[in-house]
Amino acid sequence: MEKEEISKIHEEVGTKFLELVDKAIAGEWERPWLPLKGGLPRNGHTNENYQGENTAVLIAAGYSDSRFYTHRQLKKIVEETGLTLDWRGQTGYPAFKVLKVGARNKQTGEQLMNDDGTPKMFMVRKYFTVFNAEQVKGLPPEEERVFKHEPIFAVEQMRKAVEARMGIKFIDGGDMACFIPSKNEIRLPHVEQFKSAMGHALTTLHEIAHATGPVLERPMDGKFGTETYAKEEFVAETSTVLAARELGMPTDDYQHDMHISYLQSWKKAIVNDKSYVVKTIAEASRAINYAMEHLREFLYGLNEQHIATPEQNDLLESIGIPKRIQKQIQAQTVDPEQQAAPSKKQKVELTALSKKSRTSKQEKQPVMSM
User: Fold this and answer.
1) How far apart are CA 67 and CA 47, in angstroms?
2) Domain co-membership, 110 together with 148
3) Is the dihedral of CA 143, 334, 246, 91 positive or negative?
4) Does residue 118 share a domain with residue 181?
5) CA–CA dist 280, 267 (Å, integer)
6) Is residue 65 a contact partner of residue 71, using CB atoms and an 8 Å limit?
7) pLDDT tens track for 297-309
8) How far separated are the first and last CA of the chain, in Å rounded?
9) Is residue 49 located within the same domain as residue 149?
10) 133 with 74: CB under 8 angstroms?
11) DSSP H/E element including 366
């Protein structure tokens, strides 16, 4: 795919987002900013969420079903299930994955090597087309996610996870909510100082998103009023929305008003550079995926030590097991002879924890409410 085509797609996403911003500010839009009832856009075959720019492009597609499939995956469903599927005439959406490719001599085709004797590699984007499940006749409807855990409990566990695994220090009290990069420290007013416990929880997610900035190499030195500062706030607030969606958090009018305030401050930047939306949501996607993976690892570790509470195991079942464990399971399925067989107990635990339910208790959410 050419750069011009990519830029055009990014501009289209920005234009669509601007339309939603105008409707939200005018109070004319009651659909959630993320209408996907099954969570964030995901590969319907592997059940994994899309990452980075793919998240922005597929959210902007505007479907309620979160599942997307390639031609090959849909054909495989037909072969394996016997279902009659039809997606003829449908226009797909571009997605990509980054691949490591060996650098080769143009004349001989030989693999080029680094000075240390390792193969020289470079990164390339491989584009492919995906279709939303709503575009495919014959696919069963998506199941809504079921969250067995309490949303505020999930945020409390997220806080414990980033404390334990990222070394973030939380300071409770005072009148300011902020992340201080130089101290790797998050400061939060006491929960009693907020209008609601949910407001405190969402602010916690917002500051945790900021805390991913240094490790994910986002610029964190912008002063208030600068473009760098505004973009980091956009990233953190968008991450909060994505995280809230993944953790099954409801919204209220107070949160909605906060989001509208942020939207108004971002609008100028979006008008000036429509690709701004895709870039920022890509950063937000990386931030929430990074934090969520720490939460999965934290909970899975407790489970392995047999010290996890039932509530913690319910949360782990809702958000899914760590990616490294998923890969182990896939490897054992694909080539069991080359993998150490898990014990009977491990099989039971892995099978139970790898089930990612897809039902959401919330009804309707206002646009980007917080």
Assistant:
1) 8
2) no
3) negative
4) no
5) 13
6) no
7) 999 999 999 999 9
8) 37
9) no
10) no
11) none
